[in-house]
Q: What sequence folds into this?
């Protein structure tokens, strides 16, 4: 499908780990920045569990992953990257995390928010969805609705000058029920280039694997490559 809202919009992408965006939605981000939309990334965890080496310097890894994420964002036209710095691997969808994401949404004031679908537990018969993905997704989902738009929720945010904000579109990535597919033909190489910026995590073989996934996703609509989302359009009450 085409994604051409009438006006330029601001899009906030919330994901658990450095590299999640690049695996699942980096091509769509490139389409949006090419169209002139402003895209902001928010990474909830620090990526410090991205190693199984005994004695690894996890603080150093977190710094490396931050640099890799900034480079990956730049490869698809994103300059504004926020790091919330939660510890990788044990994230929970707490009310505190929801408040933090509510504050972020009220500050950035995006028309569209992208987050990970918290309903996905099993993907096929070989992958258990990482619980950080579900935790970040659930907290983001409920920050979008009802928290960001409802004045009496988190009244302390009003004291910080963060007025309620209505998000109109919620895009869920890694969704078991996708309904919206984007043609990545013009951006697939930049998506893979962006993914491979995460040098501490992925090599060229992962790039080829993701290219294969996106080719599979594209088959439904006859696209060479595609990414998919479940899209919620949130009407005014
Ligand atoms: Zn992840």
A:
């Amino acid at each position: 499908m085409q994604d051409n809202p009438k006006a330029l919009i601001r899009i906030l992408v919330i994901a658990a780990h450095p590299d999640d965006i690049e695996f699942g939605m980096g091509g769509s981000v490139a389409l949006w920045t090419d169209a002139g939309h402003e895209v902001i990334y928010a990474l909830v965890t620090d990526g410090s569990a991205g190693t199984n080496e005994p004695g690894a310097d996890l603080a150093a890894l977190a710094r490396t992953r931050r640099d890799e994420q900034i480079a990956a964002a730049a490869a698809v036209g994103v300059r504004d990257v926020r790091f919330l710095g939660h510890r990788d691997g044990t994230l929970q969808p707490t009310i505190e995390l929801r408040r933090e994401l509510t504050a972020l949404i009220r500050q950035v004031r995006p028309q569209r928010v992208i987050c990970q679908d918290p309903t996905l537990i099993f993907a096929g018969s070989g992958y258990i969805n990482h619980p950080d993905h579900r935790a970040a997704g659930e907290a983001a989902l409920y920050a979008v609705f009802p928290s960001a738009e409802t004045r009496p929720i988190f009244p302390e945010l009003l004291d910080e000058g963060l007025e309620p904000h209505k998000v109109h579109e919620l895009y869920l990535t890694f969704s078991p029920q996708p309904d919206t597919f984007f043609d990545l033909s013009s951006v697939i190489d930049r998506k893979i280039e962006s993914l491979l910026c995460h040098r501490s995590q992925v090599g060229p073989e992962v790039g080829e694997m993701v290219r294969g996934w996106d080719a599979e996703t594209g088959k439904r609509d006859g696209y060479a490559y595609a990414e998919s989302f479940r899209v919620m359009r949130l009407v005014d009450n």
Notes: DSSP finds eight helices and nine strands in the chain. The radius of gyration is 17 Å. The first strand starts at residue 10 and ends at 15.
